[in-house]
Design a protein that fits this description.
single chain, mainly alpha, 13 helices, 74% helix
Length: 424
């Protein structure tokens, strides 16, 4: 009778191959360490690449999902306020959705109304301004010929058209057909309804997809990330409103055409931190330069810079009791990377997605998910910090601007209901 050793499973063999420490002693330790980091980095990069590829393939689902989550974060403060004041959940959902749709429809109507009235005059004035610039370059000190000027103008127009097409046709663009837009809008609306109506149970089911021991860490860190996304949405909504009203009113008083479309453009651009404010402010100044001349354009620039400075240093801390702490280099690189990968949708979702991932990673690495404490603002690329900290408790809230009241309060960050099926 022969004694046979039990045959190990495939995973046991794979574990022995990957975890073994048997290496050639002749290989320098530095090279072994560098090799270890290299193959791990390649595996992580491959996983990220596969994830991005899947997102691109499923863009008709991913974009409406991200839109619904961002809109839910925008509506969350008002929605939870109504719930705290004993407004029925179904009525709170109706008020939030109908109010949002009414505001959007009103803004769209105002933009269409003013564009239909002033577009012809703006177009004619733009053509005249380009011709004046052309004549100045021909007769000016540069001594350029008409052919050189026409070539430069053609190159500039082609460059603008190529960049615009790149943004509108990014990897995550829903498509140019009306059907894609309608389907995406309906899907986003349905997802938003599900989040507001039953977000707690949806999140509980998602957490249960992870191993039992990992559920508390996933749950706590993701709740911290959701609080950051809600704070981001609330802050950017305030920033967008102040900038849009201030710059739009300034354009109207200075006689710049299309003041309402400028205000709406500034409002939308404010949801892309730093980059959006620069781009939309430049559009306002450029339009004033073309239509009204350099002197009005100078005062338009003063208005843009003044409104942004007053909003960031006076009104926002006064109204919110906190100031935004942003790492400019990280935000600009994240927005640029998102725009390169996915065009306008990538630029829009880049910062909140990166802020969420940043908070989740920091919460997991520091173990703050165990206590529910917010990560330190110094470790985050986007955060809100209290205007006047009152002690250690305030310092712990340096990145969220909302106090943590315990598990019940945290459960409202993802679904407005305590999670009973998740191990705490």
């Amino acid at each position: 009778m022969t004694d046979e050793k039990p045959r190990g499973s495939f995973f046991d063999s794979l574990r022995q191959l990957t975890v073994t420490n048997d290496v050639d002693p002749g290989i320098p330790r530095g090279l072994r360490v560098a090799t270890g980091y290299s193959w791990r980095f390649l595996v992580i990069a491959a996983a990220i690449g596969v994830g991005i590829w899947l997102v691109i393939q499923l863009k008709l689902l991913v974009i409406p999902l991200l839109v619904a989550i961002l809109v839910a974060a925008l509506l969350w403060p008002a929605f939870t306020w109504m719930l705290r004041h004993r407004v029925p959940r179904w009525l709170s959902i109706v008020i939030a959705l109908v109010g949002s749709i009414a505001i959007i429809a009103g803004l769209v109507w105002l933009v269409i109304w003013q564009v239909s009235r002033q577009w012809s005059s703006v177009r004619d004035r733009t053509v005249a301004a380009i011709e004046e610039l052309r004549q100045y370059l021909i007769s000016g000190p540069l001594d350029l010929s008409a052919t050189d000027i026409d070539d430069l103008l053609d190159q500039g127009l082609r460059l603008v058209q190529e960049q615009a097409e790149l943004l509108w046709s990014g990897a995550l663009a829903l498509g140019s057909t009306l059907g894609h837009v309608v389907v995406g809008a309906l899907l986003a609306l349905f997802i938003l309804l599900c989040i507001l109506a039953d977000g707690g149970r949806i999140w509980g089911w998602t957490v249960r997809l992870f191993p039992l021991k990992a559920r508390p860490a996933i749950d706590g860190s993701a709740r911290n990330g959701w609080v950051t996304v809600v704070n981001f949405a609330r802050t950017q909504l305030l920033v967008a409103s102040i900038d849009a009203v201030g710059i739009g009113l300034g354009a109207f008083l200075l006689g710049v055409p299309l003041a309402i479309p400028i205000g709406v453009l500034v409002f939308l651009g404010a949801f892309v931190p730093i980059v959006g404010a620069v781009v939309t402010g430049s559009v306002a100044v450029f339009l004033a330069l073309i239509y009204n001349g350099p002197w009005i354009a100078f005062w338009m620039l003063v208005v843009v810079l003044g409104v942004q400075q007053i909003e960031g240093h006076v009104l926002q801390p006064l109204l919110m009791g906190s100031a935004v702490k942003v790492h400019p280099l990280a935000v600009v690189l994240v927005v640029a990377g998102g725009a390169m990968i996915a065009g306008i949708p990538g630029a829009l979702f880049a910062v909140p997605l990166a802020a969420f991932v940043n908070v989740v990673v920091v919460s997991l690495s520091t173990g703050s998910w165990r206590t529910g404490a917010r990560p330190s603002a110094d470790d985050l690329i986007w955060s809100t910090v209290p205007r006047a900290p009152r002690g250690p408790a305030s310092a712990s809230r340096g990145s969220g601007a909302e106090p943590q009241r315990g598990p019940a309060s945290a459960s409202r960050g993802s679904g407005a209901e305590p999670q009973r099926g998740v191990t705490k």
